[in-house]
Design goal:
By secondary structure, the protein is α/β, with parallel strands linked by helices. The protein folds into two domains: 170 residues, 3-Layer(aba) Sandwich (Peroxisomal Thiolase, Chain A, domain 1); 146 residues, Peroxisomal Thiolase, Chain A, domain 1 (3-Layer(aba) Sandwich). The protein has nine helices and 13 strands. The chain has a five-stranded mixed sheet with strand order 1-7-6-4-5, with helices on both faces. Bound molecules: coenzyme A.
């Protein structure tokens, strides 16, 4: 019988654009307050891409850091899976643009669009290719310039989002690795969180609201908390594991209250949860890989530990990955 193949992390990286927009800065743009934003979301600031700086620019920096940590030659990467909702161009895919930047040729490279769950979807896809022997070394990226699809006149959304990129290199190994991934979607929630127009559904007017994110925050909040605890249980059940076997929760960083509620349902202490939302707000598909990178680089996450990653986003989409570092 052939040996089981797992996807193991060999490198991580993150990149945040230089410009910081604080809650106090937002007070000058819309009718809000630092106190309101902190209390309702836990967010203190967000990073915003410079004029002309694109999603691929951020992704390139994050990827180079992951490649450096892994100590590999980029030419040995045999697949790029890129999660983004804010691609540089309609086409080519941002994965192809990144492939060119990294000087790689020939390997498959494609984008995944699952909004804030994009990275978890991308990890799931990468894992299928590695487990079946179709790929040995896969670069998985989550990168966004959400500031480009934010309505800076809408206080109910503009306080929540930011720009950034995270990258993770996975390699085939006979040591665990990713234990399981779980991805889901339910399209009936389209109108709770969306951008009303796109390349095919053109805006009906010049109103900026047609081209930027619209959200019914309250309703999204409730579904997110319930769904995230459900997916955590689904993941543990699939592995015959119990809550106390999780060392780290690396959640999508949308709102501190959602993160805290999910951690509480899992019986995890604050110290077992990686929180970055205060520093860079919701960066959609970039949030999980950036949080993972931060906790690996500062030594919190140690080899052999068990990590639960989970995310929820527009679609709705949701998903999780359980892995050994
Ligand atoms: C958006 C969110 C922070 C709002 O918090 P909330 O506690 O649900 O607040 P509500 O939407 O009920 O609004 C409460 C009041 O604050 C006001 N308000 C909304 N945004 C505000 C802001 N930026 N500053 C000050 N007041 C604000 C509302 O107008 C409302 O006023 P009213 O009571 O006079 O009508 C919260 O719902 C949330 O985080 N939802 C999930 C969003 C999310 O994570 N989306 C991405 C998923 S990937």
């Amino acid at each position: 019988m052939s040996e089981k193949i797992y996807s193991r992390i060999i490198g991580t990286g993150r990149y945040l654009p230089e410009k910081i927009l604080t809650n106090h800065d937002l007070e000058t743009l819309v009718d809000t307050s630092d106190q309101w934003i902190r209390e309702r979301t836990g967010i203190e600031q967000r990073h915003i891409a410079a004029e002309g700086q694109t999603t691929c620019d951020l992704a390139e920096q994050a990827s180079l850091k992951a490649i450096e940590m892994a100590g590999i030659d980029p030419a040995t990467i045999d697949m790029i899976v890129f999660a983004t909702t804010t691609p540089d161009k309609v086409f080519p895919s941002t994965a192809c643009l990144l492939q060119q930047r990294l000087g790689i040729r020939g390997c498959p490279a494609f984008d995944i669009q699952a909004v804030c769950t994009g990275f978890v979807y991308a990890v799931s896809v990468a894992d299928q290719f590695i487990k079946t022997g179709m790929a040995k070394r896969v670069l998985v990226v989550g990168a966004e310039t959400l500031s480009r699809i934010t309505n800076w006149q809408d206080r109910t959304t503009c306080i929540l989002f930011g720009d950034g990129a995270g990258a993770v290199l996975f390699e085939a190994s006979n040591q665990p690795g990713i234990l399981s991934t779980h991805i889901h979607a339910d399209g009936q929630y389209e109108d709770l969180l969306h951008v009303p127009s796109g390349p095919s559904k053109l805006p009906q007017s010049d109103d900026i609201a047609e081209k930027t994110m619209a959200m019914k925050g309250n309703e999204v909040f409730k579904v997110a908390v319930n769904t995230l605890s459900r997916i955590a249980n689904e993941t543990l059940d699939a592995n015959n594991m119990t809550k106390d076997q999780i060392d780290w929760l690396v959640p999508h960083q949308a709102n501190l209250r959602i993160i805290t509620a999910t951690a509480k349902k899992l019986g995890l202490s604050d110290k077992q949860v990686v929180v970055t939302v205060n520093k860079h707000a919701n960066t959609s598909s970039a949030s999980v890989p950036m949080a993972l990178d931060e906790a690996i680089r500062d030594g919190r996450i140690q080899p052999g530990q068990t990590i639960l990653m989970e995310a929820f986003g527009g679609g709705f989409t949701w998903g999780s990955a359980l892995l050994k570092y």
